[in-house]
Amino acid sequence: MGQFDHPNIIHLEGVVTKCKPVMIITEYMENGSLDAFLRKNDGRFTVIQLVGMLRGIGSGMKYLSDMSYVHRDLAARNILVNSNLVCKVSDFGMSRVLEDDPEAAYTTRGGKIPIRWTAPEAIAYRKFTSASDVWSYGIVIKQNTPFSVPSKCVSSTSVTPVLGQRH
């Protein structure tokens, strides 16, 4: 995370390793997570403001892709908003570096994945690429434009079959 230098990626200020748990210190983001911020301020933003926030997220994600990283957990809960409505991608706990090959993928053997925000092929084959992050970005756009949780009427275990029917 410390190697990232982009206006739409959260800035790492420091790490405290002398105690458990290890603590990560980042820049202060006054408005907290994007999902909570939008719920609290529902209907108060113009389309131009919302598009500006989404553009910033897209810019940050392009930067990660250019740096050969896959985020794997992009969701409005992992985007932080400052006082100027600048959105910054955060929470790199699931992110992984990819090989320099543009066709590279990170394959996971286990662990939990955020089903509602994950591309169907990433769920099916457990392979994550920049393209699967683009899918997640699309879900973030959906979250920002009726301010809803994706597939809220469907349980997490039922999301994959539903996606297969729609696409």
Structure description:
The protein is an alpha+beta fold and 167 residues long. 34% of the residues lie in helices and 14% in strands. The chain has a domain of 115 residues: Transferase(Phosphotransferase) domain 1 (Transferase(Phosphotransferase), domain 1). β1 and β2 form a beta hairpin. The model has no long low-confidence stretch (mean pLDDT 82).
Task: Summarize the topology.
Blueprint: E1 12-16, E2 23-26, H1 34-40, H2 47-66, E3 69-70, E4 79-81, E5 87-89, E6 96-97, E7 106-107, H3 120-125, E8 127-128, H4 130-144, H5 159-166
Antiparallel strand pairs: 1-2, 3-6, 4-5, 7-8
Helix pairs in contact: 2-4
GO cellular component, one term: early endosome
Main location: membrane
EC number: 2.7.10.1
Question: What's the architecture of one domain in CATH terms?
Answer: Orthogonal Bundle
Radius of gyration: 16 Å
Name of the CATH superfamily of one domain: Transferase(Phosphotransferase) domain 1
CATH topology of one domain: Transferase(Phosphotransferase), domain 1
The percentage of residues in β strands lies in 5-15%
Which CATH class of one domain?
Mainly Alpha
Shape: globular
What's the total helix number?
5
Order of SSEs? EEHHEEEEEHEHH
Task: Going across the biggest sheet, name each strand in turn.
Answer: 1-2
Unreliable residue stretches: none
**Count of DSSP strands:** 8
How is the main sheet built?
2 strands, antiparallel
